[in-house]
Amino acid sequence: MDLLTFALLLLVLLCLLLGAGLWISMALAGVGYVAMYFVHPSPGLFLASAFWESTGSWTLAALPMFVWMGEILFRTKLSEELFNGLAPWVRRIPGGLLHVNILACGIFGSVSGSSAATCATVSKIALPELKRRGYDENVAIGSLATSGTLGILIPPSIIMVVYAVAAEVSIIRVFLAGCIPGLLVMGLFSAYIVVWALLNPDKQPPREPPMSLGQKLRASAQLMPCALLIVGTIGTMFVGWATATEAAAFGVLGSLILAGVTGSLSWQAFVDSLKGATRLSCMIMFILAGAAFLTKAMALTGIPAALAEGRRISTSAPTG
């Protein structure tokens, strides 16, 4: 069997395992085991070493911390405070309070790291309020669905931690790389809402009466806890005061203090946050372990090297 046929068979096997509903981590490890079986007499030894090497990393300790921080904040009143604090500043812009969805998701994503938690938490407060004030429901849901994805892009993103560990690069540098794209996407989302509002004035509720600067500042005071948490989590990393793992620990401590001050985290909610963080962290680590074993198996089979060599030959071939 030539190498290309073997690679295609492994790809088909991976698709079959995933299509059958097998866990992603088990599917990756299974394909890696089959590939390793044909090139090494003891694939189990590589399986054990790959699982340990991929999960026994101090850098990876930041992952469950960020996940737990997001789980705690998901059960607090942070989304309500964000909505009330941001609403006075955008109510006169075309699109009105729809911009609050974008800003609130961006801010919440910068302290939770999870797109699912960001979208669910902000929409729980924003959607009923927007419907009550007469905003178009479809546009409100669309703005929440799109801006909820900012949790992936804006640090501290859980996906960024996974990528940095898998690619063996600095987590802080990956976080820094996500700042400008995240802000750019937020600006584009808001610009789209402005254009839509100008083209569809009949779907906009009547403008609300203006507020004085003092009223706006008093409402914005509710943003202080979130701002302090962002500075304590992200700021300490960017200025070099803490590593990603230490910043994640600060974030968990800050979220616990925030939840304790607001009184929104009961003992049952605390236990649920631990369970949710454990489930999600274990799932991600299993996927990393399966991918690490598959990577090691592919390296031993020589498939990546053959593909790279074929590309080099094809790109250097002379043209007529």
List the helices and strands and how they pair.
Blueprint: H1 3-19, H2 24-37, H3 43-55, H4 62-74, H5 78-90, H6 98-112, H7 115-132, H8 137-147, H9 150-153, H10 158-167, H11 171-199, H12 213-220, H13 224-238, H14 244-262, H15 267-301, H16 303-316
Helix pairs in contact: 1-2, 2-3, 2-15, 3-15, 4-7, 4-14, 4-15, 5-6, 5-7, 5-12, 6-7, 6-8, 6-11, 6-13, 7-8, 13-14
Quick summary:
With 320 residues, this protein is mainly α. It is 78% helix and 0% strand. The model is unreliable at 312-320 (pLDDT under 50).
What count of helical segments does DSSP give? 16
Q: Outline, from the CA principal axes?
A: elongated
Largest sheet: none
Mean pLDDT: 78
Rg, rounded, reads 24 Å
Number of beta strands: 0
Instruction: Determine the structural class based on helices, strands and strand pairing.
Output: mainly alpha
- Give the uncertain stretches in residue-range form: 312-320
Percent helix range: over 70%
Listing every helix as H and every strand as E from the N terminus to the C terminus, the arrangement reads HHHHHHHHHHHHHHHH
How much of the sequence lies in strands comes to under 5%
Alpha carbon gap, first and last residue: 34 Å
Task: Please name the defining characteristics of this protein.
0% strand, disordered C terminus, mainly alpha, 320 residues, single chain, 16 helices
